[in-house]
Amino acid sequence: MRVFAITILVTSFLVLSCKKEGCTDEYAVNYDVNAKKENERFCFYKKPEFKEYVPCFGPNTATLLAIDRGKEVTYNPYGKVTTWRYSLASKFFNNNNDLVSAGDVSMSVYLQSQSSSNYSVVFTQLNKQLDNTYLKVHSNYPNMSPTYFPNPLEWRGAGDVWPAFNLFNSIGFSGASGIVSGHPNITSAYSFEVNPMMNADSLVLEIIGQRKHISKVISANESSHVFRQEELESVGRGDAYLRAVFIRYDVQTIGGQTYYLLNAKRVLKEVFIE
Asked: CA within 20 to 30 Å of 12's CA: 41, 57, 216, 243, which one?
């Protein structure tokens, strides 16, 4: 009887102490609700989604943003392929700081003929979203006529709740430098660093992760910012992006509305937050 009781106690101890290992992070693609013992090696993550950085400057302001996303070189059986990408975005805020419609919004680009070096200026229209934001994402593929940003850039708005406008921006684009900092860790503070870029006005440093994304706007000549350990922990473990956006500003006020015309370059780096 005594041996039987001991056997029951030992068996109960083994059952209680033998917890199922698995991924306990609900943001992982293989999250196991039945797992009781965390094992980080079992967690797998998808790449986080993100939107372009489009700042708001308050009531009665418009943000007109042109982003040079740079060139990407790839290779196929026929040789080298260079793809140039850009994004255009705009937002219009009334005196209550609500997003409003500006009708059709477009910006000028150079369109080069595929058969010659001749080019013409055309206007590419931004796509209006349901929330009255505007966005255009473009990639130049080999079977398309190449396009380029002209100088000056010309923005047009047909007008709606926000009045019609026609603006020129001749500030040009800054350079863009690489991200030199490595993989973050949620157990410590993290110094996000890029190489200095003196001809930009400001620099936006962003960490885009599984749970949220955090950012800091600094002067471009500072080139680094330390995110606190608590901030890293809020972003969460897993696949993430570091994004640096180098911005030049032109501010114009017309008829009581202030237009922030921003020219930006951005770089992106994939990391894993330990």
From this structure: 41
Interval 149-177: pLDDT, tens? 888 999 999 999 999 999 999 999 998 88
High-pLDDT (> 90) share of the chain, %: 59
Regarding pTM above 0.90, the answer is no
- 15: its two tokens: 């059952």
Q: Write the CB contacts of 90 (distance below 8 Å, at least 6 apart in sequence).
A: 54, 62, 63, 64, 65, 102, 105, 126, 133, 134, 155
As a whole number of Å, the CA-based R_g of the chain is 25
Tokens of 21: 């290992």
Give the amino acid at 120: S
**Rounded distance between C-alpha atoms, residue 225 and residue 78, angstroms:** 43
What 3-state class would DSSP assign to 235? helix
Q: Specify which residues 80 forms β-bridges with.
A: 75
Is the distance from CB of 67 to CB of 85 less than 8 angstroms? no
CB neighbours of residue 64 within 10 Å: 28
